[in-house]
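Tutorial, part two.
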Amino acid sequence: MSTEVNTVLRLPEAAIPEGCPPWDGGRAARWTRALPPRWVPVRPPVPAFVVLPLLAVLGAGLLSPWGALPAWAAALVALHLVWPVLRPEAAAVLGPVAVGVVLTAGDLALGARLGAAAVLAGVWGTVCLRLAVRARQRAVGREAAGGVTAPVPTPGAGSERAERGTFLLWCGLGAVVAGGALYAAAGLWDRSAGRQAVPAAGWCLAGLGLTLLLSGLLGRRRALALRRAPVPVLRVLVRDNSDADTEVYAADDLAALHPLFTVSTYASKASRGAADGDTDEGDGHRVDGHKVDGDEDDDEELRALIDRIGDERAGPLREAVLYGIPCDGGEAVFLAAASVAAGTPVVEASLGPVRPMTPGVLRTRSRAEKRRSVRAARDAGLRARAAEAVEAAAGQDRGDEAPERVRHWSAGWADRTAVALAALFLACYLRSGWWGDVYALVLTALAGLVLPRQLAWRVTADREGLWFNGLRGPRHILWDDVRMVKADGARLRIDSRRAAFGEWRVSSPRWSWLEARLGVLHPYERTAAEITAMWRTPALRPTATATGRLRGRPLWPLGAAAATAVAAVLLVLR
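Running the prediction step on this input gives:
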């Protein structure tokens, strides 16, 4: 977290509802103190959204074969791994039911029954505490608004209303169908344990689908409730973080030190189009000094977002009006200043629930940012050394004419090392049986598609631009269309402003801390520095034009040979 005061992009005064109070640090601190105790899981880490459902399905499958509980009861108990963290409303309703089931159903021993019932009762009490604290947060937020209300803006003819919850509803429906199919297929398993475990896993998967349906319906219901009547409003500061979520700060936290909560938001296409209206030029607008057609606008925005996420950069700090009472699991709508100066304000609606920032999360975030700062400083030093080496080489030839021959860069020891390490790792999982056959087919396909690109990549520079070899033949971008040349960690990335040119990249193992200590430059750093120098300084570009084979040969013959060789080796080993 930066300790410097950031430049805040302000909203026009006319866009702020009359009498809208700022959510200052004092009122925001009261809201933060209203959070539940730190042991209550109000902000699960991202892996929990995948790990917990998998554990629930596995747990249900393990409970049923032992005869401990019926299939449906095992699924009900296992789902309590998911509900307290991701859907507490379901746990609050079904927690007592699960306790009753554990005490009466199945063949559990008395000690196991009482222990499981005690755990479920503790989970239910934690969930009830979390839901009760939400009411306290809403009361603090309503008090901070001071009774000022305003109707929620809805640009784009209510497009956000149709989008909220749609993805979860479809995913939930698919999970319910998949769970039913798994339950119906239980008789296909040969072992009796499998015939007992599969129905429980099917019940649990269907329960996860119902949980997704509930989440979608609750999200849509709460989003609609925001628009039925005027809601409390507060002036806040927001910015997009490196995970593409919106972070909300107190109105006087100009250094962006203490985020209050995060929420995933979406700006409707109509709203984004209005924000870009001041910079339109005919059928397009300009991005970084280059005209972008309307059809390429979304691609350019997506690439900029991907670059920012990859670089772990936060967006600019913007003033915004928060519509709705902030609380854990709630919905929110923002009228925020555009991400460019003098732009039209943008309406951003939540795509997910509000997630408060707990003290533990803030400490983890602070440690991660310190490590990121150290890593960024080290990488910047390596890039500076590479640029100095290229500048020194160019200085020796200063006064001479630009090189007449084309320049090229190709795979080296780093790429061969990456292939060798990957081969050793994949060889450890060779097996016999049907799984081994599938694995061998996958390895053969990977050899044909990946090995040529990794071992025989080639970039050629001539007077017009850059040529890249590939499986089907060479690709080309002009110097004026180059958008990015970067050695990003273990990857070398080159991209074009043209949407038709997909980003070119290769990767290899890299330990920047070891490079800095030994004073060694990774080949990707020098390659990126040399290409960047030519891109930025036309005098350093070759004067010749690449023709024929100089542009690069198709790599598909090499891919076919590599796939054949790998298939032969696998047949011999098996």
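The longest strand covers residues 231-240. In part three we will examine how such features are distributed along the chain.
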